[in-house]
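About this split. The held-out portion is used to measure sequence recovery: a designer receives only the structure tokens and must propose an amino acid at every position. Recovery is the fraction of positions where the proposal matches the reference. Here is one held-out target exactly as it appears in the evaluation file.
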């Protein structure tokens, strides 16, 4: 299952399940859904089965929305330069 955060034509953001070119809104289909992707991830065990069971409803089409970063404001970003042989040698 693929999840995404999108901006609708009306300017609202929504968390959706991606079903090919159609997007099923989790917030429309699941009562009490957390408002952010981070909160949903933290509570995913409570919502996974319900999200999988939602019928494909085509609330939006992929070409009608703007895909947003999944996590609106990540706390930390980690990066390591192992893409060059010298960096790999230095890290050993």
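Reference sequence for scoring:
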């Amino acid at each position: 299952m693929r999840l995404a955060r999108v901006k609708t034509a009306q300017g609202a953001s929504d968390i959706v399940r991606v079903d090919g070119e159609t997007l099923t809104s989790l917030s429309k289909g699941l009562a009490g859904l957390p408002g952010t992707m981070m909160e949903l991830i933290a509570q995913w065990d409570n919502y996974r089965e319900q999200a999988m069971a939602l019928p494909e409803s085509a609330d939006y089409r992929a070409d009608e929305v703007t895909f947003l970063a999944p996590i609106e404001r990540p706390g930390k970003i980690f990066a390591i330069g192992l893409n060059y042989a010298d960096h790999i040698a230095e890290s050993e």
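Annotator remark: The two ends are 37 Å apart (CA to CA).
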